[in-house]
Amino acid sequence: MHPNAELIRSGYDAFAVGDLDAVAALFADDITWTHTGDHVLAGEYHGKQEVFEYFGKLLGLTNGTFRQTVHAILADDDHVVVLTDVAWDEPREFRSHDVFVWHVRDGKATACWAVAADQAASHASLMPTV
Questions:
Q1: Burial of residue 109 (number of CB atoms within 10 Å: 0-12, 13-18, 19+)
Q2: Residues 74-81: what's their mean pLDDT?
Q3: Domains delineated in the chain
């Protein structure tokens, strides 16, 4: 496996078990995280603090039920593409596929673009139930 693939894979493994210190160690201080689309999580987040606030928002909106399974990782010297299944159970059950495109420089993730397969369904599933 390419070293950048191993690096990013270790981040997914750490996130899955709640080891946010290990995740933070993989990120450049000035990382940019972009969640594409027009929904509650969409936007651009700059720096580790904003990215971790985004993670907190995601976990809060899903009442901690967010999870993902990595299907494949493709990597070269500059980029890593991760294909995942994502799911959560609250506030509504949701299952989808996401693609994450990472930029890696000097052993650190400097950018990530998260793209949901069905952004409208993702947004609708995160809205509080009435």
A1: buried
A2: 98
A3: 3-126 (3.10.450.50)
